[in-house]
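User: what does the whole thing look like in 3D?
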Amino acid sequence: MYSPKTIQYFNNQKNYGRIKNPDGIGKVGNIVCGDVMWLYIKLGKNKKGEEVIKDIKYETFGCVAAIATSGQVTELAKGKTIAEALAISKDAIISELGGLPPIKVHCSVLAVDALAEAIYDYFSKNKKPIPEDLQRQHEVISESRGIIEDKYHDWIAAEEKMHEAGRER
Amino acid sequence: MKTKKIYLDYAATTPADPQVVKAMSPYFTNVFGNTASLHGFGAEAKAAVDASRKIIADALKASAREIYFTSSATESNNWALKGIAWANKDKKHIIISSVEHDCVLTSAAWLERQGWQLTLLPVDKNGMVNPADVAKAIRPDTLLVSVMHANNEIGTINPIGEIGKICRERDVYFHTDAAQTFGKLPIDVNRLDIDLLTASAHKLYGSKGAALLYVRTGVRIQPLLHGGGHEGGLRSSTLNVPAIVGFAEATKICLSAMKEENVRLEKLRDKLIAGVLKAIPNAHLNGHPKKRLPNNAHFRFDHIEGEALIMMLDNLGIAASTASACSSPKLQPSHVLLACGLRPQDAHGSLRLSLGRWTTEAEIDRVLEVLPGIVEKLRKISPFK
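Assistant: Here's the predicted 3D structure for the full assembly of 554 residues, as structure tokens:
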């Protein structure tokens, strides 16, 4: 079901792990649904004096597509200016991976969102002006996270109560 | 170096035994007749099917006329539920367990949408149905109870004899899906009070395309397929003669070596389970520790996801399966693991290794050699530690 390139990316994981003292962290996805991606970025300057993504790493809990897209997004973003990084689309990731099964397209969205959230985190920590598009993207991501947490909240709480009762017995 | 591939997904399907293929072979070419034809070609094919039916009926301690050949376990399960419901419309209540195969669950849910009432039985943390829950759930208008013999995912074996007894006493039909157990565990439909039973050839080293529904004499059932009147008018379709002959041959082979084979498989399974739980931290066994299929080992590993695990094993030539959400077409974690009380986040990192006739100790050793490293690698990639 996966393209040879996706499998290749999955097998040769690059840029995974944590960055110490990152300039920005993007945390997206939800453990209940089964995909969680944490993206760390460290900023630097290029020769022209522009801010670029000097280092980028990911930690991902998820399937083959989630891990492959995590690796892919870090490679596409490394060395890029912030504007260039924000312009990376899910379609660019999918095309680099030689296509993704339709049911796995959401993983590429997750990768794009993680990068946007990491940059948002950097901007807001450093009190920098946040581009309008990025602000909107952040709001959409936060909202959908809220929906998922709400959707599962009662259920998870009930489950946890049951587990606790089980332990007490 | 290219290593030999290791198949540990026998619960999904099995390769046909070479002896089975040999038995089937003439029925594609020389003995190709339609069992419904009057001429000699048809008679020859019919004789082969009759002989096969007898072998399989004997294996279940049933009579030959109670065996109906179908194309798959899915068809048999659909037929059992819908056929019983349609033939007995005076009773509208059906009971199934919450860990049934999707084809039972969705057939029951479909009937529910048509006006039948459905009760889903809970299971304990090992995935086992409590017969007392069956007794409690039966009402005056209960028509059918369907509880699988052993679970296809986690391998837990249900106390179907006790459940059958309760159903018999309360005058309720009892169906069991024995796709994972026929040919692997002894089944006597009389001693176990079974009214309907599903089995499938490709799970026991036969071919895809042949399965059966056992229907006890006197049980009222409507057909799912109407047509030329094959199988006593209850299942029209030209019979898949080669696959049926193979089904019987496969049954014979399984029965002749069942005891020794189970001892061998249990030893390998227990070595695998003990080895994995010892070598990998935060690894858990799913399903009943003892009352489980001799060939089933089912684990979950905290903080990692099953599909990635399967892919890494596949890269090393090891074929296994998972019930993680990411690997399912619905992106939902396994209903079986959730029914056992696991939270979705715990159900993602599941791994099923199912053993079979050609599994060797060297293969189990190889899994034990590589699996800890794979789990460790995925945990390194995961944000959860």
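In plain terms: Chain B has a mean pLDDT of 96. The domain at 18-256 of chain B is CATH 3.40.640.10 (Aspartate Aminotransferase; domain 2).
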